[in-house]
Amino acid sequence: MNILHTSFECYPIAKVGGLADVVGALPKYQNQLDHEVNVIIPFYNNQFTKDSKRESLYKGIVRLGEFSYPYTIKRIISPDLGFKVFQIYIEGILDTSDVYNYENDTERYIAFQLAILDWINSEDSVLPDVIHCHDHHTGLIPFLIAHVDSYKTLREIPTVFTIHNAQYQGQISYDKLHYFPDFDTKKIGLLDWDHHINPMAAAIKCSWQVTTVSPNYMNELQEKANGLEGLLRHEKTKCAGILNGIDSQNWNPETDPMIKKNYKITNVVSGRKTNKKWLCDHFNLKAEKPLFAFIGRLVSEKGADLLPEIIEESLSNTDINILILGSGNSETEEQLELLKEKFTGRYNVFIGYDEKLSHIIYAGTDFLLMPSRVEPCGLNQMYALRYGSIPVVTRTGGLKDTVMDIGDNGFGICHDNASVGDVYYSIKRAIALYNDQKKFREIQKRIMKIDHSWNQSANQYIKIYESLIQ
Ligand code: ADP
Questions:
Q1: How far does residue 296's CA lie from ligand 1's centre (Å)?
Q2: Rounded to the nearest whole angstrom, what is the distance from the C-alpha of residue 353 to the centroid of ligand 1?
Q3: By the 8 A CB rule, do 377 and 25 touch?
Q4: Whose CA is nearest to atom 20 of ligand 1?
Q5: What is the pLDDT of residue 229?
């Protein structure tokens, strides 16, 4: 089968969060199942691009209203990522250094999608058997294929749309409708949600199949989806929740080149000790005390606004270390920075994005805190498990599917509400577990054996594609 994934992120080329990890791993596992898997993303003017090689394959033009943009399709030829990656270059639009947060993001998303369709519609390209669109940045593709006359040769290609996060829907105001190529105007309602063009809603309506990244998140979306819950209930029969996997070849403590000492189950204690010691030396923490860490975007979905109070409460009443890695809301960043002075020697924070540091944290922290309010799947807890650190999580979204509480013969620490009180209570339970070193080590070894690789879920997606092609 020839599968085309379309996305704005793909690890290691461009990463903001879990979307990149998924699009950087699922295609690799599908390729290993003997399918021809291609990924198409925008061109980025970033470090990866400087360190890699590509060839130009095709040139075309996309029109957004009165503007014409020449585009080039480039293929990455080295390094080998385990699947083919194509990038779309458009000067001034798809050549940014970062992924999001540009004034012309709407134009960037639309131009990207039109260029993809223009290219696969050209004689130069092989038609894919299925197009898999990831998140709202590529959510217009199912509509465009179905209702734009010039793409009618693509109409038989099934489209799958995966919701990685329903909080972000990419609403576009109607004054940008003239960017769209001519389409059957009777179908305009398919683009609409709440008086806006809503790419996520359009994808839910027009794609052949909708998936999201965990079974429990799919259930939650029927009740709460940032305004799309009614639509998701209406389209329920074509929706499925498939748990994300992790790239367990890249995320492997035995071979991970980013961590300070590699280890496997048989030497987990000494391996993790070295990584923890490095973290504690580097961040002025106490290696003999339990270490709790948080990695992620500092936004309310992740419960990041709760962190300052959680830190105050925990460090005022218990003898632990806390380390935070993340960036996002500037008020939260400031509050987290301020606490450094009050709790010097037991608390530290790195504001920013640091892939390498995140790996060392997974390998060295005793507990990973995830006080999330919303967590579509959550990859951090799966990385933590693979590296032997124990997740402390809210029972929400994919966290509910992947972390079982120690009280139920499980291996993590769970609470029901994303609140300071619940998280603090969980931290106290975690300290009690840490103090029972025999049990703590038994759990560490147990969690490292859990298989969260893409092996199973990659196949579930293949089965969906096959059913649609039939
Ligand atoms: P998101 O909602 O942000 O996509 P996920 O749990 O799906 O959340 O994925 C988050 C990914 O981003 C993980 O690989 C995590 O390690 C990584 N990550 C998040 N913030 C940072 C950061 N500040 N530095 C390094 N890695 C980060």
A1: 5
A2: 9
A3: no
A4: 296
A5: 98
pLDDT at 470: 83
Query: Distance (Å, rounded) from C-alpha 380 to C-alpha 435?
Result: 24
Q: Are strands 53-64 and 67-78 parallel, antiparallel or unpaired?
A: antiparallel
Q: How far, in Å, is the centroid of ligand 1 from the Cα of 378?
A: 9
Q: What is the pTM of this model?
A: 0.96
Rounded CA separation 50/152 (Å): 38
pLDDT for the residue 100: 97
Q: Which long-range contacts (CB under 8 A, 24 or more apart) does 399-406 make?
A: 399/370, 399/372, 399/375, 400/216, 401/214, 401/215, 401/216, 401/243, 401/377, 402/214, 402/243, 402/377, 402/378, 402/452, 406/433, 406/443
Task: Pick the atom of ligand 1 nearest to 213's CA.
Answer: 7
197, β-bridge pairs: 172, 192
Cα of 456 from ligand 1 centre, angstroms: 22
pLDDT for 123 equals 87
Selection from 191, 207, 193, 168 nearest residue 376 by Cα:
168
CA distance 35 to 224: 36
What separation in angstroms does the CA of 239 have from each of 12, 19, 164? 29, 19, 13
Spell out, as residue ranges, where the chain has pLDDT lower than 70.
Answer: none
H-state helical runs in 343-394? 355-364, 380-387
pLDDT at 126: 87
Nearest alpha-carbon partner for 141 in 72, 231, 202, 212: 202
- Give pLDDT, residue 461: 98
Q: Which residues line ligand 1 (CB under 6 A)?
A: 17-19, 21, 165, 295-297, 325-327, 353-355, 358, 377-380
The DSSP letter of residue 82 is: S
pLDDT of amino acid 125: 83
204, 228 in Cβ contact below 8 A?
Answer: yes
pLDDT tens by residue, 228-283: 999 999 999 999 999 999 999 999 999 999 999 999 999 999 999 999 999 999 99
